Amino acid sequence: MKTGGSLSIWFFIGISLLVNGLLILGASIYQLFYPPQQEVALFHLHAGVWWGAILTIIGAAYSFYYAPGKGRI
Amino acid sequence: MIATLALFDTQRLVHLSTVDLVIIVFYFALVLAIGFYLKEQANTGEDFFMAGREMTAWVAGLAFLSANLGSLELMGWAGNAYKYGILAAHWYWIGAIPAMLFLALVMMPFYHICRTHSVPGYLKLRFGESSRALASVSFAFMTVLMSGINMYAMAVVMRVVLGWDIHVSIWISSVTVAIYVALGGLRSAIFNEVLQFFLIWAGALLIPILGLVESGGWSGLKARILQNLTEQHVANPGAYTHLWSTLGDFSKNPMGINWIGIVFGLGAVISMGYWTTDFLVVQRVLSAKDLRSAKLAPIIGAAFKMMVPFIVILPGLLGLALLRDPHTGNLLRLVPGNLAWSDAGRAQGLHGFDEVLPLMLARYCGPGLLGLGITALIAGFMSGMAGNVSAFATVWTYDIYGALINKNASDQLKVKMGRWCTLLGVAVSIGTAYLVMQTQSIMDYVQALFSFFIAPLFGTVLLGMLWKRATPAGGFWGLLAGIGSSIGMWAWVKANPDAVKYVAMSPHAQEQAQNMFRALWCWVICVGVTVLISLVTKPKPDAELSGLVYGLTAIPHEERVSIFHRPIFWAVVVGAIFVALNIIFW
Known about the structure:
The complex is a heterodimer.
Chain A: H1 9-33, H2 47-65
Helix pairs in contact in A: 1-2
Chain B: H1 18-38, H2 45-50, H3 57-66, H4 71-84, H5 97-113, H6 119-127, H7 129-162, H8 166-204, H9 206-215, H10 217-231, H11 259-277, H12 279-286, H13 291-305, H14 308-311, H15 313-322, H16 337-340, H17 343-347, H18 356-364, H19 369-405, H20 411-438, H21 441-466, H22 472-495, H23 500-503, H24 511-536, H25 567-584
């Protein structure tokens, strides 16, 4: 879905997921090396690492696929 | 008063780290950027109020659902799942899916073909100006009042969860919504709703996944709930994990309702009224680019709506199974919000039902994930509010200003009016939030007021679309009688609580049951009065009803598309999954 300009809504969603994914991934990897004093439940599963990675991959794919100029809607 | 309040409270449920704050700030920056980017695409009335009628089925369908996924929807229904168990899922399944499919397959063609700008606009075409005036004035004012109540409730939760000052929460979120909707109109609201839909899922999906891992899957979760509730001497503990098997009797389930109320009150009237005639959600599908997209959009919305219990109801059930006091290790028992959030309640460290989702969020989410989860809650609030103000602006501009005040308003003037109405809607919402802050009982009255209109409006629109004999006089007086009877029943029970045994058919009926049965009776009265008056008054000529009524409207044949692109195919798939879910969780 284009706007009449060149940016698709899916591009905005891709950017959002990409940035959030990278921030979560970065913060969670940091916690791997410097565990917090108060751990959340199931900390050993490192949910932030794999969830951040999933969001980053999906966000990057959307951002690339719907990047401006590719004509996809 | 504002000056005496600190910006941030020291009592809070969760503490945000720098990365969490960066995620939240990035979200606000992105939604504003979208609003500014779309400003140039909102120059005509069709652009501003109808998003150019060029949305794809996916965009319209996700916005249709997202406009309903307010933060109170997320936190409130997670709280209700904690309070009532899996019975709360009825509001997502039988209380939504049949109505959404009915909208798609039966009602959408009429809305789309008559090219109305709003639901009251359809009433004008079908029944005349008096029905439109009644529906538009009641909808416009109730919408902004409800928006204000949601805003206040959201700000209270943000204070409890994050320690944010109530005024800061109200002003920052509402001013952001005002800017992006006033700039880009419905298109901006829809774009942000789709974005918010993804953020809500990204932020909330981890809770049920990790919760099921911790509790040992669905069977482990059920066993823990049964054990915990038995330990706390809660009546009918088994009823918390069964959808239908305890609905034979009002007293056998925590909601105090029976299957008649759920099936006929909720499924056949309230949800039909909300999903097919509440302009807040219908406006999203009116923006679809063609009839096939307009029919597919509610079906896509229904498919995702069926999944919402996974991120809303399941966390509430997980709260029943897993939440323990971190200091004593004892089971944590949540209490009603007014008790938990009073000074005494906060001093004792009590938590309200609506805190169950944030509590689960804090249980599993570390830095980053917590920020995304909080962003999901804020996004939910903003999508709901944007839905309210954009619908208000459209109804006010077309059905009140354009119909009653300035009938010759130009398109440019309507766009200008729409922008000002967006700001006005936000201002009235903020005013309502402050009013509720002073007098909390107003909240109950306004919520009740909103419920008075939904069921009768559905009766009027349904007869208008399916029965060509329905006359303008029948439509107006039926609607008025339905609204009047709903108010009358509500006042009767308020004045004499014993009357509940007549209105809801049982002295054991609780609040939700009363709402269901009141809706059912006022719908019956609306339909009955409409039919009776129509039979003795003169109907419109058939020629004037073309495009508005079944039997007099040529429904365009769908293009020659494969079965996988046909709305009816996907409606059957969604319907089959809906039936299966109800059987699985019987």
